[in-house]
Amino acid sequence: MKKFVSLMVVLTVALVGLSACGSGEKTKGTNKKEENTLIVYSPNSEDIVNTLIPMFEKETGIKVELVSAGTGELLKRISSEKENPYADVMFGGLNKSKLTNEDLFEKYTSKNDKDMIEGHQNIAGVLTPYITDGSNILINTDLIGDIKIEGYEDLLNAQLKGKIAAADPASSSSGFAQLTNMLLAMGGDYESDKGWDYVGSLIKNLDGKVANGSGAVHKGVADGEFVVGLTYEDPSASYIRDGAPVKIVYPKEGAVYLDAALAIIKDAKHKENAEKFIDFMTSKEAQDIFGEELTNRPLRKDAALGNHMVPMKDIKILTEDEDYVQKNKDKIVNQYTDLFTELQ
Known about the structure:
- It holds the Pfam family SBP_bac_11.
- The chain is of the alpha/beta class and 344 residues long.
- The protein has helices spanning 2-35, 46-60, 71-80, 173-187, 193-206, 215-222, 233-241, 271-281, 284-292, 322-327, 329-343, and strands at 37-42, 63-68, 89-94, 105-106, 128-140, 164-165, 228-232, 246-249, 255-265, 297-298, 317-318.
- The model is unreliable at 1-31 (pLDDT under 50).
């Protein structure tokens, strides 16, 4: 009986030992798997994530878990998860005017920062700009005839009354960007009478036709519903690339470009992988894809551009006061809404 009990004890110890070894191996494997992971929050388009993320995975061997949602929703998640972050990096949706909660992100400057266009570098240490987008005018070449359009002033042509597509700045971010661009280009700042007088004249020429969203603007021009539209470069360039009967006019008075940025989430569990992700998105390989295959303007000095994009040096660039615009957005929108209502 004693021999039987002793044998049972030996077997039990052996099984516990084997179990512990198995558990240890399993834990080790899980840790290895976790080290090879990156969790990405992104509001970016399917074109961007479906093109760039597989390239990153192939190059690094790191498996990406993507969570797609709107910028506002993702920022709320990051804030609510700050004691125990789920994601490692925010891919897009960020720029200086939206970064009101810098404490949610880690400082990191990419090894490629020196290769980015001056004025579009990671100065603060948190945001890494990787693409930029600007306001422009989109023209239907089948409908424009001999009407000359080189900038904002030309949109006051009486022949264009009711034929201009524009989005409501109160409900469209691109519509608001166009409004602040016009105020800066035509008045020199956001409060001058000269700038607002121009906006009033343009409102009259819109003839009450204002879209709630940006999609209706560029689509309306491409489909021939409108002769001209106030929109932005990304969708405009996509129509050019795909052969639609449209052309882009960069306002001779100047265009504002706003960057989209990446940032590492504070206390990210896979910080090193997040750093590799940022380095990849600012690499020449990725930046060339943005400029040639996609329609997002890359920010590397040596990035290649397709025929659907005009080099930045050929565009008159205006610098927006992003701090002022952020603090006074409601005031600017309300002034526009009051003016629009008054002129109907």
